[in-house]
């Protein structure tokens, strides 16, 4: 599976992966073409509030008359954006720490391992909430969206670090690394040229799964009111739904669709992640000879 | 003499993307009571598949597509699952390569040996454990070690444990699949000796599967040479090794250096075995055979000589 | 700074002497810049000084101790059910890999795992409490009810617990399902499984005596890791169901900027996770004979 076309051949045979990819691509498409939404999501219409789905508003309206269908479409952008960028941060931090702590097993490695363990043990949601709350309170002029991205990124790297570390340790044992060293290859060169390619598939799977987690985290933070109240996101929609007692007013059209969208997007990334994992682990593959 | 085991035209194929890989294609041989038969051939020739077929332990993508396996007159291929389970281990048992993970890592050795005893016999757990300990001693391991776990034993000892386990229900036939391949020379010899002794003492029939002819030469009475899913030659060990009939057997023997023989460089057989997905129409060895001729483009006849020897070749 | 904690300590209505406020701020380290405070609280968490809660006007330890049992009951029951359910369904799914049971159960698990915990809670409340009126909407006990006996008390508790437990269980069980399924599939390819079959054991016995004991090994380690993420889920569940546990307490502590309480909560959370990990390690040494206690 050295090349891209070979990889695609195997990947496309895996049903999970194809469905996952389809879901993600669908949402990416929606996000890109969000401008085609029937209404401006922030447009209010006091005459059309609390309406269930109808011909004009396909998903009904909320307490202020916003068209929920358009809101849903625009919400896709926020979820994808935050999910991807937060994961980028997590991936970079996690990879660096993982590589370093795996390769240097003595002092640096031990210390870094403790750091990773510390972060694994700290409950991530309260920490994220605190980070966001603290940063918002300091009134540093960073847009709230980026504060959220930063908070999620900084709390979500430990899983990646752990996987990379264990992969590095495994690969390190293998003989070709010793051989490269005897030829005189420098440490950094070894890490990049020899360890990374072997480590890559599992890491890729892990990163994709991290995106899934980041999307869920973003939704939760928004729901709790910690995100940017002016942006429209699925989490924010649910936040307003709850604060306006949608539950008790039986406004299922306000509460259910955002949840379903979240499920599908998260599942999309999760399926991709699991199928890549399955492909890289020969034992888990469907066919066995 | 009625055969204990008679394999008649066995065909075992693997399913691959809608087509069949003919791993075992019309193989027949027999094993008599108390006889030790060696099954030799290079990797991929189908010998392990034969072994797994005998006990119907094939993976889900393989199946027996033809032939019969008669054990004491009963056809294993068409046996019901219930009867098959009763036959397994009690009548025929198998010893896998000990270097593999053939022993359950979380169960004590004594319990693994006792397990089939309790299953097949009407034995109580303590009695089975005692019997297991005796078996452990029989294969040359100290009785007190029986309650340890597999990871606490070396490769050679694990192989002994598997032999002890195979004998648990007093079977008539034991199949040994590459029993010494992954062991060092010293241990190899020990295990070979052990197998020989046990076979004599218990009057066991054995089928020993290996690519190493020297092991067969040491421990077996008869030998069957397989190539590309088919039987090339069969006969008693001495005559086959001294005067091989099939060109492939010749090549195999030449590949092993002989300490006493003339100082020749061992010769390897040029070429590679055929693709079993679409095997050639004629003799499967023809592409690599030094004496192949025009007639070898058709499947060679199976010649059984009066001496009991069998060979599948046009030229011999 | 909004929500100045020092303000909360002074009883309302009283004229505030600025110098007293200053001194209090100094005492609690509130005059230092925020990043220092953040660092200070991470550092202080390691000292056992749990401090004093601003909001509740009581020692932090006391406040936490009052609210902790509710969470332990909720999380304890939910995780126990999730583990048992996840492992058993996962084992069958792995054994029948590729067949209908596997596909349906894995898909179901993946779907509930992909749900935001709070959303599931909302949906359940909407269906069962608001529409059907079957279960109470929140809290842990019905305030107006005077319990006639212990059974009534337990019944009331159960009624309040059902929806939160279902929420937390559904969201967590998929992880256990998947790890058991995958480790089972791994184990099934091992040679000792072939040996077990060769001995004449029925498929069920092979599964029960050889496959599952080995498949449990990596599954137990996962429990330890999964427990670390429980707190996030429990927090959401408690908020939605107004359940008075430490998740809810954490949220309030953040809302009211009660840093001392927050410190203590973080500490307790981390402690619980460490204990759970430790317990999992110990259990692992018992089930895997290759690993000895150090």
What does this entry look like structurally?
The complex is a heterotrimer of chains A (289), B (316) and C (294). With 289 residues, chain A is mainly α. Helix content of chain A is 72%, strand content 0%. Chain A has a single domain (15-26, 60-282), classed as MetI-like (MetI-like fold), CATH 1.10.3720.10. The two termini of chain A are 18 Å apart. Mean pLDDT of chain A is 82; it is low at 284-289. Chain B is an alpha/beta fold. In chain B, strands 6-7-8-3-9-10-12-11 form an eight-stranded mixed β-sheet, sandwiched between helices. The longest helix of chain B has 18 residues, at 185-202. The mean pLDDT of chain B is 86. Chain B has two domains: 3-81 and 172-250 and 259-274, P-loop containing nucleotide triphosphate hydrolases (Rossmann fold); 100-170, no CATH class. Chain B starts with a strand and ends with a strand. The N and C termini of chain C lie far apart (51 Å). Chain C has helices at residues 5-9, 18-27, 34-46, 60-95, 100-113, 117-131, 150-188, 191-198, 203-240, 246-255, 259-287, and strands at residues 52-53, 58-59. In chain C, α6 crosses α7. With 294 residues, chain C is an all-alpha fold. Chain A binds chain C through residues 120-127, 129-130, 133-134, 137-138, 212, 216, 219-220, 223-224, 235, 238, 242, 247-248, 250, 252, 255-256, 258-259, 262-264, 266-267, 270-271, 274, 283-284, 286, 288, and chain C through 1-3, 34, 38, 98, 110-111, 113-120, 122-123, 125-126, 130-131, 178, 182, 185-186, 189, 225, 228-229, 231-232, 235-236, 239, 250-251, 254, 262, 265-266, 269-270, 273-274, 277.
